[in-house]
Amino acid sequence: MDALDVGRIVVGLMLLVLGGEFLVRGASSLARRAGISALVVGLTVVSAATSAPELAVTIGAVIRDEPGLAVGNVVGSNIVNVLLILGISALILPIAVKQRLVRFDLPLMVGLSAGLLLLSLDGSISALDGLLLFSVVVVHTVMTILVSRREVKSLHTTPNLHNTPTTADSTKEQAEEKETVVRADSFVRSLLLVLLGVALLVAGASLLVDGAVSIASSLGVSSLVVGLTVVAVGTSLPELATSIIAVRRGERDLAVGNVVGSNIFNIGVVLGLPALISLEGITVATAAVAFDMPVMLAASVALLPIAFTGFAVARWEGILFVGLYLAYTGYVVLAATAHDALGGFTAAMAWFVLPLIAVTLISFTSFEVGLHKGRKLNQAGNPNSVP
Questions:
Q1: pTM
Q2: In the 8-state DSSP scheme, what is residue 57?
Q3: H or E element that contains 125
């Protein structure tokens, strides 16, 4: 480790924060002008943009014959997205979750996570597996955009009761023409902000990962562990920066959609596309199948009851998620370095921490479910009451 590596990390973090700010501003503006909700932009445009570093790292790893780094990058990034990024975002401000996200996008994220685990049981992700994963994401993206545009169009469509043109109609048409010119100019500016944000995010992630990988490699750990920890966090920093900035700017739909969309994009495109291009597929380490992929699936499943209970991720749930991520990372590092504390850490997690978390989660979930049902009954009994 030297000063150059530390400098890369610092500069990379600065570029990520700046890029996230530009990306959120541009994407939010494009959403309003294109008739697409902020949630859908987060699920598609922003998630694909912030996953660009993961895609670059994975393709490079496959070319350099480092399958452990490729798989670890995707699996680790998905764990980071749910546990760390959503957790930190919820600590800043409780995150509201749309019913559409719960009913369609979250189950798809869980299904893709389970599908990746099942496809990896034979020790590799073949080209056919990659085609299947990639096709699911393409279909999801097309359906998401079409449904969103249809919903927005139906909300803004009003019946025309007067067919006779008037002077007011003519004035309105002139105003609309001027507004169209202004919108076109604003659209170009918003698009430039998105492109600039993406460029800064990719550059920042590249610098940070280069410095972090150099430091981690000097410690003598495997490429899978580097991918699961250092690279996963580094390439997920665009999602972290974008989600935090989105929450602070009041774009909470964009923050949640960014995380869920990024996880879907990571599995289907970041891992599926290189597997499809590579005729030999991507080898999956036994350790990843036995432990890390199940953790990724468990993190995805854990988000479902939280979203269903009150359609929100509360601050206490954010604390729980961050704590779980720190525990997971601690285990991976101790196992990779064969530290003497591994046995005691594993026993404490298995017999004390995880059961306590399970009891806490079940208790709070039951409370919120009861509270949610009580509100529904109250609204049904008193239609004029404010929810």
A1: 0.76
A2: H
A3: strand 124-125
